[in-house]
Amino acid sequence: MLAATMHWTDPMLPRAMALVVLALAPVALGLALMAAWEGPPAPLATVIALSIASFAGLAAAVGPAFVTFAVLFASVCALLALAARHFAENPRAAVPAIAAALSLAAGGAAFLSGKDDAMNALSSFTSAGLVGLSLACALKPARAAPR
Question: Each residue's pLDDT tens digit in the chain (147 positions)?
């Protein structure tokens, strides 16, 4: 287990925690965007998506990192598909969502590079992705007013 093998002073702990967040955050953000634009997703689908992302992040934290990037890639593809579906009706909200999805992918790629400043690049790109998705959620499509 992660807690049994790492101490809080271990230099690998930030990398392990980044892998967990990199798997879980895009899924949660995608579900939030879906809820803002289309209404809340089915509870069972939400539980399954978040469980898979959590297990993938934990598996990557103690094993190979590619598991996290598979979930990240799937999340980015889902965000892009959701934004493309709403592009015609609300391009003002879809454009920040597309930029945010690409920013999350760039953050994952920067982290995967393994350079010295990879954590800084990951933080910068994922912060930009969070801001973009927050803006996209705020600019949700207009729905017909109830009568």
Answer: 445 555 556 667 777 888 888 888 899 989 999 998 888 999 999 999 999 988 888 888 788 778 888 888 999 999 999 999 989 888 888 999 999 999 999 988 888 887 778 888 888 898 898 898 888 888 866 554 454
Count of CB atoms situated within 10 Å of the CB of 99 = 18
Comparing CA positions, the residue from 123, 38, 25 lying closest to residue 76 is 25
DSSP secondary structure, 29-92, as one string: HHHHHHHHHH-PPPHHHHHHHHHHHHHHHHHHHHS-THHHHHHHHHHHHHHHHHHHHHTTT-HH
